[in-house]
Fold these 2 entries.
Entry 1:
Amino acid sequence: MKKNMEARLQECYDELKWLYCELYHNDLNAFEYFVEMLRRSYEERKPALRKQDEARLETPGWLRSNKMLGMMLYVDAFAGNLKGVEEKLPYLQECGVNYLHLMPLLKTVKGKSDGGYAVADFRSVQPELGTMEDLEHLADACREAGISLCLDFVMNHTSDEHEWAKAARAGNPIARSRYFFYDNWDIPNQYEQTVPQVFPTTAPGNFTWLDDCRQVVMTFFYPYQWDLNYANPMVFNDMTENLLFLANRGMDVLRLDAIPYIWKQLGTDCRNRPQVHTLSRMLKLACYIVCPGVALLGEVVMEPEKVAPYFGTPEKPECDILYNVTTMCTTWHTVATRDARLLRRQMEQVCSLPKDCLFQNYLRCHDDIGWGLDYPWLSQFGIGETSHKKYLNDWFTGRWPGSWSRGELYNDDPRLGDARLCGTTASLCGLEDWDQLQALSCDLMLHAWVLTQSGIPVLYSGDEIGQLNDYSYHDDPDKWDDSRYLHRGAFRWDLAELRDDPETIQGQIFQSLRQMEEIRAAHPVFRADANVWPLDAGDNNVLALRRQYGPETLTALFNFSEYPKLVTNPAPGAADLLIGETISDRTLELPRYGFRWLLQEEQDV
Ligand code: GLC
């Protein structure tokens, strides 16, 4: 049934008011402003987007389709600017991409931008990349082409050059109340007792001294990223309006950057506070009322038990999509150890979540890999957290004897011994080393694994042609101290030219990926809401998973070791989807880093 905005507002009004008034101490004026702002934002929503909203309300499962395939990219690295991205849409379509995450592109300050995550104006685009009109034009073109667009909404902080920050620096008390300002270090020092550091090496400390106005300001990330104070309803009202502004430019998904950090409370670690969930629930309600076709992607890079609560409950949802961060880093742990047991356990946990939980699955993204593994479970094998992180980092930086991996450390703090890791998929798989065939198999097996998981698979631009690390950031004065630029290099169009040539590495990766993606898109058993459970393959180097949807049953096997394996065939009589043959043998051979997708239809089972 079609519902208009007022009906949706009425439907949610009591809950919204309750949450708002509870958080903001019955500030009814602020609440009324908030509701009027929602109405205003809806008035500004153009007909094409309203029509899409209605369509999506009728098909709430649109994100769960097995046809979804994502890619994330930097506009400048990929195509220079937004117009360039629009020109390159045919390439993205050739890649099969229908969900595109553009890395931050709003106004920022060169040298103090954190890759665009320090926003100086939520309503204008970085001039080098184009204009808001270009973004809207691109969004229209994507909608025509059936591609959904995702953009970051950096909500925890603003750049110190945002107009609020400038006014706060100049002494304006209203502007100061949007941030956390202190006359001296007393309270900041109390916070430091309990708040861990995000960037211990590149940006130590959680506060910054402002010499010109003789104030201390809260800066959990970089010193030029000032944390917003969401205890101030004005901040929540205005930031929600900014989010809806971007939604109205035609964004389909908004990525809530660093959402766990947005509520600060003295004496706590200032992460995942209950109030964060009130805020994310209210954001979800605001979108449902104004732009119900828009989804929220939560960036929750936390331990597994902290992640799932950001979905909210089926009756009171918060984020629509979350990063499957633990599976991502457990996958890399499995590459380094060849032991798939932890990954299997991780799958047991992920598969036991309700099917409404939709994950974004990936191997690499623009950030480092933090080693957030299940250490209590690993301890039964005598594996300790610090020594294991050291092993993983040694392996992936090629220091471990025999390692073919080529990454670099990120935020290495020798006191804590918990450095994180950077590098592209291809370089981490060993494509810079001599055994390219082995690296290629590993790279493809890992991609097959991502495509097998439930949720939206998102490729990192360049991975489709096996792009290697870019070491040129070492010589760039704005980038040299942030090793995440190792995997943020310019897209190699010269190498992409080779994608149709099966004699080249690029051609082999590109074509094999396309084949796997097409198989995935053709079989509903890959839908995000299929039944999925891990199997015991009888060999710790091999991960086995079963998916079932309607008449289709898929058995997937992945060999995480550099040795061929013989395993008992868990699905005799099934068709191997990659070679198109029925396999009746009782035992199956998996080549080094090989994988199998075995499909049975109901009549065969
Ligand atoms: C998120 C981004 C990261 C950025 C940080 C600060 O974690 O993914 O790249 O540095 O937020 O905004």
Entry 2:
Amino acid sequence: MEDSLLQYVSVVPNANQKHLEKMGFYAFVHFGMNTFYNREWGDGKEDPRRFCPTDLDTDQWCDVLRRVGARGVILTAKHHDGFCLWPTATTEHCIRNSPYKDGKGDIVAELAQSCRKFGLELGLYLSPWDRNADCYGSDAYNDVYCAQLEELLTGYGPLFTVWLDGACGSYMDGKPVQKYDFGRYFDLIHRLQPDCAISNCGPDVRWVGNEAGICRASEWNVVPAFQFDLQKVQDNSQQQADGFAVNVDVVSEDLGSREVLSHFDRFIWYPAEVDVSIRRGWFYHPNQKPRSVNNLLNIYYASVGGNCMLLLNIPPDCRGRIADADVKRLDALAARIDSAFAHRIEIARADCPDAKDGMSWQDMQTGGTYSPRAVADTYRIEMRFDRPYKADKVVLAEDIDYSQRIERYAIYAIDGARERCVYRGTTVGHKKIALFRPTVCDGLAIVVEQCRLEPYLETVEVYETDNRQPRQNPFGKLIRWIHKLNYQVYVARTERAKAREAKKGGDTNK
Ligand code: FUL
């Protein structure tokens, strides 16, 4: 066993990361001043009197989200325009000065209550970039930001995550550079809510690299440690010569194969989150339509079923309700997911010798961990059904307490004495949904062909087809490539704009 492989598998998730990975799917709610100005980015000069939802109903949000299977919801408590959806003591640019409930409203509190009612977990987005705060660009802003964090972390019960957005265009406002005191933010969050994960710019969750719901075919959880700095402040990346030597950035296709890891010596567990909106914008715009069910289902399979967390944004409209068209789409998505997983095939017999700690196949199916036997360098699990079924998906999960170990595997359909490969994959991680062409078979074999160390599978489930797999986009690869290019152009453009500002004497942040 190579030492390096042992080093990779020694990297495991912390409790907060594991919790998020188990949640799998949660929702984003972008709602705020932009909803009323029909904008994506406000400039901070908006009039609080324009914020006036006429029929706000956080119960409706939670009801819809619960029905589609989201386990939590993250609300934009403050977006880049600086307008706060709770009556903060830190600024007058907040809900207190809006007509909503005659200035007595608190949407964070309303949502927290609805979450409790509907059994959802609450998370909050608090944009570090603030275009309204006068002190933005000075040290004093770190005090304001921390005071806001403190109000949110102490006033609304347990939060499953705080989402710090890395987006920042302060050069657009000609403001001086803001040096975010991330260390202080993280310490505060850890101290006030130790069970709260810190996402996006934080140490617990990695941005997948685009906002279009595009996922990698192979998503690794163990990545070079410098990925964290890359995500925090883009500028830092350029100080990490090692990363650039092998040309790895946040949008690279391969972040954690053996080949990539071999160029580094420090590693972290950093699972990817796919943030994507049901509409083109993050905020509600009347002229936009929700994505198709086919598209949403593809995103669901690729993210939730591709070792990522799905953060699906659903923006309420000016009434403060999720629009009817979106509710219809989400209910249709829920129906498709239910139908796809309605018939789990009972596994009558399985060849599973040498179960770890004496566990049997039955133990494993009731939540235990199963370690297959080594056959040369290959690990094989063979399952037989009580009769032939037409199957089209296998759900696999590694026990991530033992890290992510599987690197390549294949699934074979067994028909009598014949075996036919129906699926080839690389990563499994916390959850893999392997979809294949509906195939009649009386058993399946999963063959792990390459792994870092003996794999520990926590879940192996086989499902009968409902004959409704989503159609694949024939231009999928091209679209992914365009998004990567777009991102690189965006980074280059931002760099140029910053350089221009710096020349003029200003200093910029990102
Ligand atoms: C980006 C922001 O600029 C968008 O407005 C949105 O909040 C998205 C989730 O993150 O960086």
